[in-house]
Design goal:
Layout: H1 15-19, E1 25-29, E2 35-39, H2 49-53, E3 70-76, H3 79-83, H4 90-100, E4 104-110, E5 119-124, H5 127-131, H6 146-155, E6 160-165, H7 166-176, E7 183-188, H8 196-210, E8 214-218, H9 222-225, E9 232-236, E10 239-243, H10 245-252, E11 274-278, H11 282-285, E12 297-301, H12 304-313, E13 317-321, H13 342-352, H14 354-362, H15 371-382, H16 386-399
Parallel strand pairs: 4-6, 6-7, 7-11
Antiparallel strand pairs: 1-2, 3-12, 3-13, 4-5, 8-9, 9-10, 11-12
The structure holds flavin-adenine dinucleotide.
Length: 400
């Protein structure tokens, strides 16, 4: 049995691993930090179930019942909820209802020890646990064995809401293989998922620079910088450092998973009961609505089941219907394009290391703790940055 011939054929969802009746498949990290299945040929009986259940194929189970799709610009009425969510807080509104039904929510949070803020999927049964899933984590989330737990929840008759990227939601439907009345799936419009190795190395770099331990991470802090800005923040022993370094590589697409460039889910045939996204371009679609750079959700209702839940929760949000508009997002038209320097980036990374890549692709010199402050002052005097120049100008003006 050969499962993955080319890296772009696998999205790393682990379905093949968990369905294998002989436990012959184990997911292993490749040099780039992405998970791929490895088959123990001595255990494999060629039953083909892994291939049958593979969801990363264009014939995935589409869920679109309505044409045109019901689309909404939405913002949670509770400003605190809104500001703690990535877009307009649609995820919180939907999951609050599931919590009221004593259900289980699955989403992307962090691993238990939070040492390098590894992003994993896990379950939440309280609002506090659910709140960890808020905010976009721009790195591939490891699904671990959540599908097995989720199936058990459904068989117990519980309400379940699973949220994730299109490939993760597609994988769940393929794994389950049948409809469950109590299951709601929410897929997010996804630009692509960067490598967990790159994320961990970025945090390690911050630790080396500051001489401390990572105590917090935020991929996009809208409270500080606004919804449209994109800067990552890392806390080292409680001190926050914000930059556009990780972000830059995210947008260069050089650290994305190869399958993202061939994503079968990057189109208008959505795979979840409900699709959520940042509502870019809402100023044109719904002029005058929430034009304060605090965030707006795009909500697309794809199935009757999704519609029933949406009708139940939409009063928690300010909502304007804009059916027909939603498909303008790039990743609802096509997958992100593979950058020309993708192979060069990884070849540099693997042969010369993370610091070299920072210098070459982000024009950033990584300096270890101690060296940093001395060099920083010397550099500031010799070659003042625009910020320092501005400060000097201001000071001179004041003196004058
Ligand atoms: C890697 C990535 C790329 C994205 N690209 C785009 C894009 O190109 N265009 C666009 O409009 N929107 C994109 N989004 C979606 C958007 O940023 C918001 O996640 C979405 O609008 C939900 O906002 P909210 O306020 O309703 O949810 P929030 O309350 O902020 O909840 C965030 C939701 O995203 C899920 N999530 C967070 N990180 C991950 C992850 N790594 N893997 C899987 N699920 C995750 C959580 O489980 C939760 O359901 C992307 C999100 C991610 C994670």
């Amino acid at each position: 049995m050969e499962l993955v011939k080319k890296p772009y054929e696998c999205c790393g969802c682990r379905t093949c691993e968990i369905v294998c009746p002989k436990s012959a498949i184990v997911m292993k990290e490749d040099a780039h930090g992405f998970l791929y299945p490895q088959i123990d040929q001595t255990k494999c009986v060629d039953c083909g179930l892994c291939l049958k259940k593979c969801a990363f194929q264009s014939g995935y189970p589409q869920r679109k019942e309505f044409e045109p799709v019901f689309g909404y610009a939405a913002r949670h009425k509770n400003m605190n909820t809104m500001m703690n969510s990535r877009s307009g807080g649609a995820f919180t509104a939907l999951t609050d209802e599931i919590l009221k039904r004593n259900g289980v929510i699955y989403g992307a949070g962090y691993d238990e020890d939070k040492k390098f803020f590894k992003v994993i999927h896990k379950a939440a049964v309280t609002a506090e646990q659910r709140d960890e899933f808020r905010g976009s984590k721009y790195v591939q989330s490891d699904l671990k064995d959540v599908f097995l737990h989720l199936k058990r929840n459904l068989e117990e008759g519980k309400w379940v809401l699973f949220s994730g990227t299109g490939c993760q939601v597609g994988a769940l439907h393929k794994f389950l293989g049948k409809e469950y009345d109590h299951l709601i799936t929410v897929d997010i419009v996804c630009h692509g998922v960067p490598s967990p190795k790159f994320w961990a190395d970025f945090l390690k770099m911050r630790e080396r620079e500051e001489g401390g331990r990572v105590t917090g991470a935020d991929f996009r802090d809208k409270k500080k910088f606004g919804w449209k800005a994109h800067r990552e923040t890392v806390w080292i022993d409680g001190k926050d450092i914000s930059s556009r370094l990780y972000t830059k590589v995210f947008y260069l697409d050089t650290a994305a998973r190869p399958s993202c460039f061939e994503c079968v889910y990057a189109n208008r045939n959505r795979v979840g009961d409900i699709t959520i996204a940042d509502f870019w371009g809402h100023e044109q679609a719904v002029p005058g609505f929430a034009e304060d750079n605090k965030g707006v959700s795009l909500v697309m209702v794809n199935t009757s089941k999704g519609k029933a839940l949406w009708e139940k929760v939409r009063d928690d949000m300010d909502v304007i219907e804009c059916t027909g508009y939603p498909y303008r997002h790039t990743n609802m038209k096509r997958p992100t394009k593979r950058p020309d320097n993708y192979d060069e980036f990884w070849s540099d990374y693997l042969s010369s290391g993370f610091d070299f890549v920072m210098k070459k692709y982000c024009d950033y010199e990584v300096i270890t703790h101690g060296q940093r402050t001395r060099k920083k002052w010397a550099e500031k005097i010799k070659k003042p940055t625009r910020k320092v120049k501005r400060k000097i100008k201001k000071l001179l003006k004041k003196i004058k």
